[in-house]
Design goal:
It contains one helix and 30 strands. The protein is mostly beta strands. The strands form 15 sheets. Strands 1-3 form a two-stranded antiparallel ribbon. This is Tryptophan synthase alpha chain.
Length: about 400
Amino acid sequence: MMATATFVLVASVGGSPGCAEHGVTVGVDEPSSPSFTTKDDSGAGDAGMSPAETPAMCPVTTCSLPHATCPSSNFPCDVNLLTDNDNCGACGVRCDGPNTGNSKWSCVDGKCAFSCDDPRYRNCDGNPTNGCETRANDNTNCGACGHVCPADTVCTGAACKPVCEAAGFPDDCAPPDFPDQHNCTDKRTDNDNCGVCGNRCDPTGPGLPALPTNDMYYGCGDKKCTLPKCKDKTKANCNLDVTDGCEATLGTEENCARCGDKCAPGQICFSPPLGTPQCICAPGETLCFGVLCVHADDDPDNCGGCNQRCAGFGRPHYAPTCTLGVCGGRCEEKFADCDGLTDNGCEIDTRVDNRNCGSCGHACLPGQVCSAGECLVAPCDTEGPTTK
């Protein structure tokens, strides 16, 4: 029989009974008294084998790569050498490079690797000691190290774009005497650059019919100085009838940002001190602090009302919850609160804790490996590591 290579020997099962004819059931509340049963209570073995043909199963007490038991371990085989930053590739090998300048060192496939932890930065000089020193929207490294933007363009969204396009405007009416300056605008509506740069509209509208109200003037629309506009920016001529002037008020649920911009049922029109009014808050949401829309039914920061924060934030491996406006909480997946204490949160990692393997109180045999929440077993005639 060929033996399978072992990686780290944790312990032999001292004092445990030998392998029974039909195997041993492991993962018991009282590991000192294991029970011996068949794998299948119906009498049929694995893959249609009879009970007599079913191989006896014994506790696994060794680690299988990439798992290992290191001096820092709390439980047998709880270290993954491929991903553990304190035991990378081998016990005690720490990925402790300088995590400076938006960078980090971490264990990747068993080797310490340098990377940028902020996508807005890059390591363009190739020197990890100063981290990721270059901004991704740098004009000399736009989208990639060494990619220089041409003159009169700027780097935005990792691409070189004309200055005004990057600012969200279709046109640039730079002063003729100062071509290096930029006057970003929209010639379709700009009263000072209507249709072409420098074409300033006369608000009195020479040759056009006199406006019947004094709250309007002639301005630029569709690149022509023929559009009646409202002097007050919060007003609008929504019915397109100049005889009653600017009859509508913007910033309302019926006309939020412009004429016809109607907010959906349950929404409100929010007018920031600087910026354009906009419809905010979906149906069922609550407006908090004048600017924040929340689901008070399921938001643990605003549970049942604004600023009613559920307890438990900051507890290890614990997540506060809000259900129908009532606070609660739950453990992160694979973690459990076995001691019932609130301050230390969900303190047990049920994936590797051989006293609470898979769930609280489910103990493995002494020295047996708990891996992925299961007390590992292998055929009794198998030597070396076995994963399940």
